[in-house]
Amino acid sequence: MKLSDLFIKGKTLVSFEIFPPKQSVTLESIFKTTEGLQTLNPDFTSITYGAGGSASDRTIETADKIKNTYGVEALAHLTCINSHKDDIDLMLNQLQAHNIENILAMRGDYPINKNNNKGTENTYQYAKDLIAHIKSNHDFCIAAAAYPEGHPECPDLNTDLFHLKEKVNSGTDFLITQMFFDNAILYDFLDRIKQVNITIPVSAGIMPLLNTKQVGRIKGLCGATIPKPLQNIIEKYEHSPLDFEKAGIEYACSQITDLVANQVDGIHLYTMNKLEQSKTIIQQTNLR
């Protein structure tokens, strides 16, 4: 099923993001986590894609397991940076052969410690180009990433909104936001996209802070604002890991409860492959 058909029903969708393990780790580890998450009856599960197309076979295998073994719709991530156009089409054809109907199309990041100067003639340089290609040549429902606080590489919010509009006009069916920790930021973002006539569904990306290491990574990854209430939690429990995790879960739950009350289109939980913590969040928010 194409996920765009689910959004039409008008309820708040619930979805998870997982990532396949490193090549040195067996896929059985993620399958155990995946099986546990699917018992929570999500509307779909997204599977990340290796930088520059690395480990793409693991994305396919995991998506296949979710869709064809557990019967849950799979949203396969696909990035285009540093990937040859022919490799992109090969990946798309393989996904289609496994009955995967939904793609999250992104530019992606360059692989670490690899030559990033492969040339641009046979690659898609931006997500909008990848989206346009998929829409014109394949039959997928296409999701794209949105940044409520603006993409880190964009000089200002208006420029970011311009590029988001380009992605939508290229054929995006719905959006999934980057993580945010202040719901007011999302509500402001939703108002801004309406002003430029972006009317497709938006699923709100929620990442629970479970340990102090995440804080630095998140700031480096997307520059998400840490509001005062969350900063207080970080400072209060930075030397107490169990209390930090509990407080982080409670904070994520409070975000979700407010978002659902305000009738957002979807809640997309960045699980970090944490099964028990994800279960707790879903149960405490009565999402399932």
Q: Give the total of domains.
A: 1
- Secondary-structure element pattern, one letter each: HEHEHEHEHEHEHEHHHEH
User: Mind telling me the CATH class?
Assistant: Alpha Beta
Write down the Rg. Answer: 18 Å
Shape: globular
Q: Largest sheet at a glance?
A: 8 strands, parallel, barrel
* Helix coverage percent: 40-55%
Instruction: Quickly count the helices.
Output: 11
CATH architecture identity: Alpha-Beta Barrel
Mean pLDDT: 92
Give the strand tally. Answer: 8
Instruction: Assign the structural class, choosing from mainly alpha, mainly beta, alpha/beta, alpha+beta, or little secondary structure.
Output: alpha/beta
- Kindly report the spatial arrangement of strands forming the biggest sheet: 1-2-3-4-5-6-7-8
Low-confidence stretches: none
* Spatial gap, N to C terminus: 21 Å
What is the percentage of strand-forming residues? 5-15%
Q: What is the CATH topology classification name?
A: TIM Barrel
Family: Belongs to the methylenetetrahydrofolate reductase family.
Catalytic activity: (6S)-5-methyl-5,6,7,8-tetrahydrofolate + NAD(+) = (6R)-5,10-methylene-5,6,7,8-tetrahydrofolate + NADH + H(+)
EC number: 1.5.1.54
GO molecular function: FAD binding; methylenetetrahydrofolate reductase (NADH) activity
Task: Explain what this protein looks like in three dimensions.
The structure is a single chain. The protein is α/β, with parallel strands linked by helices and 288 residues long. It has one domain: TIM Barrel. It has eleven helices and eight strands. An eight-stranded parallel beta barrel has the order 1-2-3-4-5-6-7-8, surrounded by six helices. Helix 5 (127-137) links the parallel strand 4 and strand 5. Helix 5 (127-137) runs parallel beside helix 6 and helix 10 packs across helix 11 (275-284). The mean pLDDT is 92. It is an enzyme of class 1 (oxidoreductase). It comes from Pelosinus propionicus DSM 13327. It catalyses: (6S)-5-methyl-5,6,7,8-tetrahydrofolate + NAD(+) = (6R)-5,10-methylene-5,6,7,8-tetrahydrofolate + NADH + H(+). One of its GO terms (molecular function) is FAD binding.
